[in-house]
Amino acid sequence: ALESIDFKNALEQFQNLVEKMIIQKTKERSGLYTKDDDEIDYNKFYTTTQTLFGPAVKDQNVQAFFRKIMSNPDERPEWTEIFGCFTGKRDGMSSSSKESMVLLVSEKQQITHSVVKRKDLIKGIVKVPLLHFTVTASQRGVITVFSKQRKFFFYYSFYFHQDTAWITGCDFLPNLKYVVAVTESTIILWDYKSKESEGNGFVMKPMKNCLLCVCTVTMADNLARDTILMGDDKGYVYLLTITSDDFIMKQSKSAKASQFKVLDSESFDIPKRKLHDDWVGKVKYFSALKRFGSCSTDNINSFVLDDIKRLEDHLPVKEFSVPKGVNAFTYCGKAKVIVTGG
Prior knowledge:
Elements: H1 2-30, H2 42-53, H3 59-71, H4 95-99, E1 122-128, E2 133-138, E3 142-149, E4 152-159, E5 167-173, E6 178-183, E7 187-191, E8 200-205, E9 211-217, E10 225-232, E11 236-243, H5 246-249, E12 260-264, E13 272-274, E14 280-286, E15 291-296, E16 303-306, E17 319-320, E18 328-332, E19 337-341
Parallel strand pairs: 8-12
Antiparallel strand pairs: 1-2, 2-3, 3-4, 5-6, 6-7, 7-8, 9-10, 10-11, 11-13, 14-15, 15-16, 16-17, 18-19
Helix pairs in contact: 1-2, 2-3
Protein name: WDR64 protein
Keywords: Repeat
Organism: Sylvietta virens (Green crombec)
């Protein structure tokens, strides 16, 4: 209750500050304003806002709010925008109901373990809800599983040594219980449950083109197999199915004894189809739609959404053209819409 009262008082002072700014700007435009000690510039606005709300407001939101007031005082922004929250206008909603909205901030837990070192960066992060953990893969080869058990985080991590190839994406194979990651020239299958400090698993190679992204095709058959989609730098999308038997039957005979065994990619049937005329930026399978999506910066074949069977035949695919291409996309089941970002 005290926090509620304090916030209400702080919000009232903030709105008074905004009113003074609007009056000041209106007088400036009419030529009636004379500068004095009560003038509100950006530094004063920033300091006052930080004093009222503390770390709840971010610098970029304070700057944006101040810029909106100064550029057009007649169309004042909503107070929620100072917290980075933007509300759409709805018919029949009174101003009082807008101001009574509650801002909820979810509880966050910081993981202090550093999974990457200097000059490295995360290239993939995947949440596995059923097993309550998260997988990350860094560009230089650090793959980590964060497991949330009993409200604490445990992590398993290993460093995949490579000569020049960088990791470009990762995902999780729910049936085989392996982490899959792709580099520019190989496919990594890591058994995160292995006790060895450096991990255990398989490396599939060679791959002719540079692999840029990977995702799992979620099926409900619960068999000992998983299917993955991959995209490369030539516009191709690949379809690869792996079974537990493949780990035994298709190992390379020339491979040396090591923790990571080599799988010969030429012994696998890997259908592929050229869907784009530029790099494939992302691939994703939507179980609810029973369709896969792939995107590219290609202006003509920017986004493809179709059945994975289209990767094995030559029938037309549903594709969309977006100026300057598509870099990212996602699907919302509740709204039944797909959103793309260029």
